[in-house]
Specification:
The chain contains 22 helices and 19 strands. With 732 residues, it is α+β, with helices and mostly antiparallel strands. Helix 11 runs antiparallel to helix 19 and helix 19 runs parallel beside helix 21.
Length: 732
């Protein structure tokens, strides 16, 4: 590619960055700003969600049919409530999740979707002919290019329907329902007409068919609604949440400010340590953020508070690819190569490392998405989008700008590429360390922390949140600071044994937590009880959540399963890429170490173990592997370049060569999270704190655990000929 073409492309990229940020911040024409264009979850917009479990022993296809039928009925009810962008989805095998954004009266909404359905067959004059209890089955069949619905009635229904079809066929009734003709019979669900076919002949025998150019989906949905006329299965509320838009909107605004501060700190850090290369990284990062946000808009991704945490985390991870590339370029220049050759060689050598590191993190994110709950899925999807875009901006955009600098007479100088005039690279640390020699000390320190943590966990127990133990949380704006003892006295008749703490500015809010699993009606009763003493109403309930005990058991099993699946997936990938089981085994041992270290942190300091903890653990798995892969890639490269060096020399050299990169990556990731942790809500903080701990633990384990373990696995089998001959001479 010629210099002029590169220059033109760089100008276009800069123009795209400026234009993108203008549109992102302010919108243009009919295009809204990204804040207005994004879809937000219930934890930001406010609303209600409820998870209900079907009480049935059915399995296989029968269970699938039952759940589809129930989902169709609930979907119809939610639509009747007039809730915009509501959704009804099947979770797992027997659960249905209903989300209703913007709903304020949670009790009424949940009661409406859980009531017994009323399915009726009605003549045009409004006469009710029969009800859903007389329908034996409703199936679909093909009708050439279209589909039709097949109905079967029981004996009583067959007789009644035959008489009704006779009246409709001869138009013996006077239409009283808008849109209906005298020769039609309407099928009405919850007072809404779902179809009103024309009667073309008198129908006897208890079977009939409804045709009308249905698509397969239309026919299936209508048949399911007819079959589910009397809600085909009992549903039990096992989890529900009511969120006020006030908390979410405030958290969103603070997140934007915190994100801007974190982004600014990363920009500054990159310029300080990398000079002109840092400016290039900042341009790529600006483009990254714009692409990230508008990709979420284009894909219709729902942004949640955990998703904001993932967005901030992904910014820190996006810097990592640039840091890897810059480090390789500086090394090539320090080795005596010209700027142009160093840039070309540095990118080539860094590309494999960047891809390996990001792909392993992507594996963890995919597993997290597959096994996680809805909020965690949002976190994982956001993380996956970030990983893909970060690869593009680092490999394509950064390379474009740096190669243009390398072709410039003015900027193709050492000082602009992070190298001193004497050819030595500018680094935070210039000292070399003997890591392998002191590995046993590292092992003992880690083992001591983990043992202490496990003792705390077994003796004192983990501080499980209500999403693990089952229970209820209610957050209420009391309008003033009220004595907690008075609140406890007001609730003493409920036998809740609640934990009550202050929240909000001036301690004007209270948060009530109890291990009792209270459905929405019971929660409303508690609020009414408090309203007898204080001037509050249902509108003052900022948030409430209820988790059944089975939800916590499933979270634990899914978390364990996710770590196992992610570890196996990454192990297979590492073995495939590095052609040795020793790399994979060392990396997985490091993952187990990191998980145990974070669990120990939670046990020792008493942090609440909840749903965000699961996301943090699985993200840690991917992030820790990311660090380890970079170091392993360098070990593999040095083994090829310096085959006569022993394992200890090789690994120490590799660790020292990548040390500055490892510290810088962890530092940028932490810096971007710190403002978010300080400024934003407790919900995001629950994600951020374990992530910050995980970043530190992952950084340390990559250096002090994984690489030394790899050395111990290789010791003896990969010693240099010189070491072996020396040992042989000593024996003689």
């Amino acid at each position: 590619m010629s210099v002029n073409v590169k220059r033109l492309l760089c100008i276009l990229v800069l123009a795209a960055v400026v234009f993108g940020w203008v549109v992102t911040g302010f919108g243009i024409g009919s295009v809204d700003s990204v804040k207005d264009a994004l879809k937000y979850g219930l934890d930001i917009n406010g609303g209600v969600y409820v998870v209900m479990e079907a009480q049935t022993d059915l399995t296989g296809d029968e269970l699938d049919q039952l759940m589809d039928q129930t989902r169709a009925v609930l979907d119809n009810r939610v639509n009747q409530l007039g809730v915009a962008e509501s959704s009804v989805t099947i979770e797992g095998d027997k659960r249905l999740r209903v989300e209703m954004p913007g709903v304020e009266d949670a009790e009424e909404a949940i009661s409406a979707i859980g009531k017994t359905a009323q399915l009726q067959f009605v003549l045009a004059d409004g006469t009710i002919v029969l009800d859903g209890s007389m329908v034996k089955d409703a199936a679909i069949a093909t009708d050439g290019a279209n589909y039709k619905i097949l109905l079967e009635f029981n004996s009583e229904g067959a007789s009644l329907f035959e008489e009704a079809s006779r009246k409709a066929y001869y138009s013996e009734v006077t239409p009283a329902i808008d849109g209906m003709n005298a020769n039609e019979i309407a099928i009405v669900l919850d007072n809404e007409i779902i179809t009103h076919p024309t009667v073309k002949n008198i129908i006897s025998g208890g079977n009939c068919e409804i045709s009308g150019g249905y698509t397969r989906d239309e026919a299936s949905t209508t048949a399911a609604l007819i079959r589910g006329g009397a809600l085909p299965v009992e549903l039990v509320e096992i989890q529900s949440s009511v969120q006020s838009a006030t908390i979410g909107a405030d958290a969103l605004d603070k997140s934007i400010v915190a994100g801007a501060i974190g982004l600014g700190l990363v920009f500054l850090l990159m310029v300080v340590f990398y000079g002109m290369l840092g400016i290039v990284a900042d341009i790529a990062l600006l483009l990254y953020v714009v692409m990230f946000l508008w990709s979420m808009v284009a894909m219709g991704v729902v942004l949640t508070l955990p998703g904001i945490a993932a967005l901030i985390l992904s910014i820190g991870m996006a810097v990592d690819a640039n840091v890897i590339i810059f480090a390789r370029i500086k090394e090539e220049i320090a080795a005596g190569k010209t700027i142009r050759v160093a840039v070309s060689t540095g990118f080539k050598n860094a590309l494999t490392t960047v891809l390996d590191a990001q792909i392993t993190t992507l594996i963890a994110a995919v597993v997290l998405y597959e096994v996680g709950t809805t909020s965690v899925k949002g976190f994982a999807l956001t993380l996956m989008i970030g990983i893909v875009i970060s690869i593009f901006t680092a490999v394509v955009i950064t390379q474009l700008f740096i190669s243009l600098l390398a072709d410039s007479k003015k900027f193709a100088k050492n000082k602009y590429f992070g190298v001193n005039e004497d050819g030595t690279p500018k680094q935070m640390l210039n000292k070399t360390f003997s890591f392998i020699r002191h590995r046993k000390i590292f092992y003992m320190v880690s083992a001591a922390i983990i043992i202490v943590g496990m003792l705390f966990a077994f003796i004192g127990g983990m501080n499980y949140g209500i999403d693990f133990t089952g229970g209820t949380m209610i957050q209420i704006d009391m309008g003033q600071q009220v004595p907690i003892n008075d609140v406890e006295d007001a609730l003493k008749d409920y036998d809740l044994e609640p934990s009550i703490i202050y929240a909000g500015e001036g301690n004007s809010q209270i948060v009530i937590k109890t291990i009792a699993s209270l459905d929405n009606a019971k929660r409303a009763e508690i609020v009414d009880t408090l309203a007898q003493t204080w001037d509050i109403s249902a509108e003052d309930v900022l948030a409430s959540e209820q988790f059944g005990p089975s939800v916590g058991d499933e979270l634990k099993s899914n978390a364990f399963l996710a770590v196992i699946i992610a570890s196996i997936g990454m192990l297979i990938y590492i073995i495939f890429r590095f052609k040795s089981w020793k790399y994979g085994a060392s990396a997985i041992i490091g993952v187990v170490h990191d998980v145990l270290m974070v669990i120990s942190f939670y046990a020792i300091f008493g942090y609440t173990v909840n749903n965000p903890f699961i996301a943090a653990i699985l993200t840690l798995v991917g992030y820790s592997i990311n660090d380890t892969i970079v170091i392993f890639d360098r070990i593999r490269e040095n083994k090829t370049m310096f085959p006569k060096d022993g394992s200890e020399v090789n690994i120490d050299k590799s660790l020292n060569q990548t040390l500055n990169r490892t510290i810088m990556t962890s530092l940028t990731t932490l810096i971007v999270m710190i403002p978010l942790c300080i400024m934003v809500s407790a919900t995001i903080r629950e994600f951020i704190i374990p992530l910050m701990v995980g970043v530190i633990v992952g950084c340390m384990s990559s250096i002090f655990i994984c690489s030394p373990i790899y050395y111990d696995l290789c010791k003896g089998s990969e010693e240099s000929k010189y070491v072996k001959s020396t040992k042989a001479k000593k024996k003689k």
